[in-house]
Amino acid sequence: MKETQEELTYHVPVLLKESVDGMNICPNGTYVDVTFGGGGHSREILSRLEKDGRLLGFDQDEDAERNIVDDPRFIFVRSNFRYLHNFLRYHDIEKVDAILADLGVSSHHFDDSERGFSFRFDGALDMRMNKRAGLTAADVVNTYAEERLADIFYLYGELKNSRKLASVIVKARANGQIKTIGEFLEIIKPLFGREREKKELAKVFQALRIEVNQEMEALKEMLTAATEALKPGGRLVVITYHSLEDRMVKNIMKTGNVEGKTTQDFFGNLQTPFKLVNNKVIVPDEEEIERNPRSRSAKLRIAEKK
């Protein structure tokens, strides 16, 4: 069956021009898009490359394979971007000219009721980006200790009532496994006031998604590998959507590590592998937000390897 255009471009690229411009593309360079998704950013990168240019696109989600670009300059890597270092070695690539990461979850994932990313649909409590991976959101909800659940909701969802939330879930699961989104919502909805319900539920689902997909650990590994993989003058270009990932990106660009630990030389100068290209974060304009509401919280940061 021939795919529709909508299926092919399920991910409307955020800050497309700004991010690809930020990569400072040289027509014969080697580039990596670690979040291939619908291929929107990758297509734009390829349009700026000549025949000796190369682009690697990473994505762990099998749905992304439907969007693979048929182009001899393009290599698709079906893997989590945390393995950036391994796959660059596998393809005999020592250093690259720029790395792009768009850390947002595509609307395609939220709109697919079977994937369990959204509280708008009933379905299995799943949330795995890689459907071959083991742990699901149902596993987290049904097996994690109360204290660990509370920590996840507090750290990854920044929910003030994380302890109460964990306690209610643990009490409910004593009467039987929580398997569907509908069952889960029935348990947690009474904890949130009507006026803030959607915002708070989004935070709960975000926290579970981050835990299921080990997003923070994967991001840390990718950013560390990216720092090593870039040539001098190479660019790291990252679009973030929530404060946790943005903090890690900001830290690595300012200090060379995700914790933000500073080291100084003998003269007191900050030791860092990067210099910032934009001191002020780039955000979408009103027109883009109207066209693509998921871009509302996007922040673009660009750094250059010294």
TrEMBL record:
This is Ribosomal RNA small subunit methyltransferase H. It holds the Pfam family Methyltransf_5. InterPro entries: RsmH, SAM-dep_MeTrfase_MraW_recog, SAM-dependent_MTases_sf. It catalyses: cytidine(1402) in 16S rRNA + S-adenosyl-L-methionine = N(4)-methylcytidine(1402) in 16S rRNA + S-adenosyl-L-homocysteine + H(+). It is found in: Cytoplasm. PANTHER family: 12S RRNA N4-METHYLCYTIDINE METHYLTRANSFERASE, S-ADENOSYL-METHYLTRANSFERASE MRAW. One of its GO terms (molecular function) is rRNA (cytosine-N4-)-methyltransferase activity. S-adenosyl-L-methionine binds at G39, G40, H41, D59, F81, D102, H109. Gene3D superfamilies: Putative methyltransferase TM0872, insert domain (1.10.150.170), Vaccinia Virus protein VP39 (3.40.50.150). Its EC number is 2.1.1.199. Keywords: Cytoplasm, Methyltransferase, rRNA processing, S-adenosyl-L-methionine, Transferase. GO terms for biological process: rRNA base methylation. Belongs to the methyltransferase superfamily. RsmH family. Specifically methylates the N4 position of cytidine in position 1402 (C1402) of 16S rRNA. GO terms for cellular component: cytoplasm.
